[in-house]
Specification:
By secondary structure, this protein is of the alpha/beta class. It is 31% helix and 15% strand. The strands form four sheets. It has a six-stranded parallel beta sheet. A six-stranded parallel beta sheet has the order 12-11-10-16-17-18. Strand 6, helix 4 and strand 7 form a beta-alpha-beta unit. The longest helix has 14 residues. It is elongated, with a radius of gyration of 23 Å. The two termini are 18 Å apart.
């Protein structure tokens, strides 16, 4: 029987621990979740906690011996599929190929685990990983055996009979409630399938799930894959020790989704560029009439306070000066470009206008570091995509270190054809936003804990 290596300390222990972002980790609360101890470390005048600049303790796959061992690799294969289960974008599969090929080159037996969608603990055939197994097999140029489940006697027998170089893809982890409940019994069953556990699923590192947190209590050895290491290191380079000016481009539909990130970055960035429907709430706080545009009226005062704090911190705060307005939320709507002061009654702003695009492009002229989260308009509709695509071109044309992630921004980047000119495109949505908010990623903290307890 496997024994929890964290049993001595509780989840992370009765001791204070410092995670990769330099924040002290507190004790568990009654829900079993990690409780960060706020303000535990002093901060630089503009930057994250000083200790965050120290190297983390998370091991890399290159730091451990994986030869002839069963290596459980948690990835994010939550790829989009059409109604016929054809994969429409395989970029997440390609993102983890370096880790998988490294394990193959070092004579491992590879057990891959992921989730797709939200089956809520039920077996949903449309959310099977079988199409992924076929696509992955083509990339690896070898057979990928598709398991019928992710735990149980049949899966254990399949893994026990693997030969060096074999690759098995487990079925959707979320077919079991234990995955999202971070259930110890389910975590233990997953750990029993491996000699080594590797987390290469940055996109779910903000979640407290069995396959990214619970399993680390029982797996003999734990480490990070190349994708996870890249994600953490690029973020660290951009936000903890950036070359300045540092510009944050923040878009999306709701201020409520981004306000914590904005508040955290008020201590870090030199310029804010705001777009998307969330810009409407900021514009209304300045007294503009936005017609029928989406506005979070309960956050207008918060928006005004954010602008005020930015000014106090000598941060330039850019808002749209013109918009693409439409008479209805429809790709076939009647549209016109108007200054923000002249949005017609009963019309709505659905994209930034050309004058704003030019202003934002000029605001990037001296940027040395750019972090972008969220589109600047309803880019899914061609009529309202030009603002976002124009910003993609501006960022791609800059000489700055550019990191883009979350809020479907990565989709816009790939749609534009400019992906090769962006320094780094994050695979994480919620995880990327959690880092912008200054939060600890539970799965990264768990890997750090593996090192500390080993």
């Amino acid at each position: 029987m496997l024994e929890s290596r964290h049993e001595k300390y509780g989840w992370f222990g009765g001791e204070k621990r410092v995670d990769r972002q330099g924040l002290h980790i507190g004790h568990d609360d009654v829900s079993g979740k990690m409780v960060p101890q706020e303000n535990a470390l002093s901060q630089d005048e503009k930057g994250f906690n000083t200790a965050a600049k120290e190297e983390g303790v998370m091991k890399s796959i290159k730091d451990i011996d994986i030869s002839k061992k069963s290596v459980f690799i948690r990835v994010d294969f939550n790829v989009p599929m059409d109604d016929h289960q054809n994969i429409t974008d395989d970029s997440r599969i390609q993102a983890v190929l370096p880790t998988l090929k490294y394990a193959l080159d070092h004579h491992s037996k590879i057990v891959i685990a992921s989730h797709v969608g939200r089956p809520e603990g039920k077996v949903v055939p449309e959310l099977s990983l079988a199409p992924v197994a076929k696509r992955l097999g083509r990339f690896l140029q070898k057979e990928v055996v598709m398991a019928k489940d992710c735990t149980g006697p049949e899966v254990k027998d399949l893994v026990n009979n693997m030969k060096i170089g074999d690759v098995v893809l487990l079925e959707n982890l979320r077919f079991h409630l234990g995955e999202q409940d971070n259930d110890d019994a389910f975590s233990r069953e997953l750990a029993e399938l491996c000699d080594v556990y590797i987390n290469d699923a940055f996109a779910v590192t903000h979640r407290i799930n069995s396959s990214v947190v619970g399993i680390t209590k029982f797996a003999p050895i734990c480490a990070a894959g190349f994708l996870l290491l890249d994600e953490v290191n690029y973020f660290k380079k951009a936000m903890m020790d950036p070359q300045r000016p540092l510009v944050a481009i923040v878009g999306g539909a709701k201020v409520s989704d981004k306000i914590k990130a904005l508040e955290n970055m008020l201590n870090i960035v030199d310029k804010f560029i705001i777009g998307g429907a969330m810009a409407n709430t900021f514009l209304q706080s300045k007294g503009y009439d936005l017609g029928k545009s989406k506005v979070e009226k309960d956050l207008v005062d918060v928006a005004a306070s954010t602008i005020k704090k930015a000014a106090e911190n000598n941060i330039k705060f850019y808002l749209p000066v013109d918009v693409v307005a439409a008479d209805r939320f429809d790709s076939r709507a009647t549209i016109k470009i108007v200054p923000v002061q002249e949005i017609p009654y009963e019309w709505m702003a659905l994209d930034i206008g050309p004058a704003t695009s030019l202003l934002y492009s000029e605001a990037l002229y001296d940027a040395k570091t750019i972090v972008w989260n969220g589109p600047l308009g309803v880019f899914e509709m061609d009529a309202f995509s030009q603002g976002t695509l124009g910003m993609v071109h501006s960022v791609a044309s800059s000489y700055a270190l550019s990191i883009v992630g979350g809020g479907d921004t990565d989709v816009a980047i790939h749609k534009s054809g400019e992906a090769d000119r962006i320094t780094y495109i994050s695979t994480g949505g919620g995880a990327f936003l959690a880092l912008l908010e200054g939060k600890t990623l539970p799965a990264v903290a768990a890997l750090d804990g593996c090192y500390l307890d080993s």
